[in-house]
Amino acid sequence: MQRGSDRLSAHRDDEMKHELQGLLRSGHPTRTAEWHDPEPVADDDPEVAGGPVLPGRGPGRLEALRLELGRLLGRTSFPAAPAALAGALRERSAPDGLVDRVAALPPDTTFGTASELARALIGDHESGEQE
Known about the structure:
Layout: H1 10-26, H2 61-73, H3 82-91, H4 96-103, H5 114-130
């Protein structure tokens, strides 16, 4: 047994090893009191600084809108007309501004991808502002 400048007793050292054993084996926190653990950032957290992603001009707005539409609609929603896409967005609790813009697109068009829809929304939004 080692005697010296150890701060903890051998008994406490064994207790700490036992407490950490679950964490070391599982790779994630195992505490029952969750307030001890930091809350991870979720992938679907809204952009707090910029608000919800809506059609608009600016650097990267097309890409951000395309990603948001892809996240909300997925692959199964395409190809579809604006009315069907607006309904799918409503079901998935998309921002009202985005749903309204999609519903306002010409009803005779069909969109095959989120990129096509994003380009139509950005183009529609920019032409509406220039008038």
